Amino acid sequence: MSNRKPTSPAAVPARPTVMQDPHRLAERGEKVLEVAIGRELRAFRRQKGLTGAQLAELTGLSVGMLSKIENGQISPSLTTLMTLANTLSVPLTAFFRGFEENRYAVHVKSGEGIEIERAGTRSGHQYTLLGHIGANTSGVVVEPYLLTLTESSDIFPTFQHDGMEFIYMLEGCVGYRHGDRFFRLDPGDSLFFDADAPHGPEELITLPARYLSIICYPQARG
């Protein structure tokens, strides 16, 4: 009889834990609401030709509190909003107008994306714009594209623009250049990078190739 002890099974490495706060999105939404309220309050005050100090005197609120409300730093109570609405002679709901108007959603049905030509691209690169939101409360412009590359597509490793870009490979295979690095992108692969570095599909390995490209950059400030 063998005296060897049974070997214990190899330890299965634990999956990394993703720390995600379920309240984080709600908190962000509250901050956006606060900013929207502050923007409307500032606009109404200026329409009445009032300074912050004058509005504070009329409402009995402190100048500091009014400043924080206008800058979206605090959530004003319903009583405070009622006081401001009565003093400025506007309906209470007027403070929420900007928030309601800026809740964007763009739905594009399959096959209904807009085919466009982006400045700086080469021939044979089919860009299908899947949606676009310009001015919004987030301060960020997001442009999602579906790119299709075929035998007639040129390669170009020197495309540059502002912001960040995320690529998700759907079909085919390309060799993608970013700065001085080269990445082979197969279906299911992704690449996230600073878009101000020279980048683009340098080698068309398996065609046709399709990938999602999501470009984010700060919106122009008026």
UniProtKB/TrEMBL annotation:
SUPFAM superfamilies: lambda repressor-like DNA-binding domains, RmlC-like cupins. Keywords: DNA-binding. The keyword DNA-binding applies. GO terms for cellular component: cytosol. One of its GO terms (molecular function) is DNA binding. Residues 41-95 form the HTH cro/C1-type domain. It holds the Pfam family HTH_3. This is Helix-turn-helix domain-containing protein.
